[in-house]
Amino acid sequence: ESDTASEISFQFNKHKKTPSIGSHSSDMASVSSVSGSVLSVYSGDFGSVDAQGTVEFALDYDEKNREFQVHVSQCKDLAVVDEKKGRSDPYVKTYLLPDKARMGKRKTSVKKRTVNPIYNEVLRYKIEKMVLLIQKLNLSVWHNDPLGRNSFLGEIEIDLASWDWGNRKLNWYPLKPRSLSAVNGVDHRGVMNLSIKYVPPGSLGKMGPKNPPSGEVHIWVKDVKDLLQLRPSGVDSFVKCYVLPDTSKKSYQKTRVVKRDTNPVFNHTIVYDGFHTEDLKDACVELTVWDHEKLTNHFLGGIRLGLGTGNYGISVDWMDSTQEEVAFWQEMMSAANEWIEGLLPLRSL
Length: 349
Fold this sequence. Notes:
It is found in: Cell membrane. By secondary structure, the protein is mostly beta strands.
């Protein structure tokens, strides 16, 4: 687990399996086995009507059980989603921000054919009070569609640092439209500073230790700025790297952990060999940043570098590179043996 350089062989072959000379190789994983890679696990909801109505709830923190409780009572005068049938089937959903994936979502039951649903349910989060106080509560109301095209009915966001914890009474709050950041898909999770380089096979002259028989992709992870701070002490972060579709241990690399720093410096270089120029069209370098904790690591954000055109003609959900990420990869492909520098925003889906 060096913080200076790691080298790994990556074998791209559609049919044949011919290991690269002088190194071990890893066979390509099947497309189906990697279609749910890490950036794709956070699904969203779709569709919306104009937000209206109110929601009644109360907040409490159970010191004994170290549990945050959201008492969802009821909603009134919600928007009608299916105007022909004059119905909405609403439910309430909550997240803790800034990292909604970390603690997960909580949902009430669905109440059918009503714009005035009564729930009287408690949504619970096991979380330390100090950590809770740097979070925001996002509470939203949705119409449940059997086909999964759920419609947004309104939301409210509460900064828990300024919440009056002596107030345990049920109160009414107006539901608001989605925030501009949510509508525009803005999800700021920090920015990664990195450089990449492609060394084509035989491009450095005679074969030898410095001139591999197959091409190499070099990835230099320099630093990350403005990571999400999940607890008062900061964040203990590290970067994982895979070259998809290979998610085997041989493809996996990671940096050291940088402790208590939302602007960690890694200076870690990874070299993947086994690349031929045509493979660059079908490969995807996935770099993800994680917060390290004893029991589990928490996803902070990531980038995917590739052309986003599919894997050997097959559409896969990890081929979702943004325009910025695609342009970065294209620049590397067109400038052999040159370091291409980039500053790319981390994201989740």
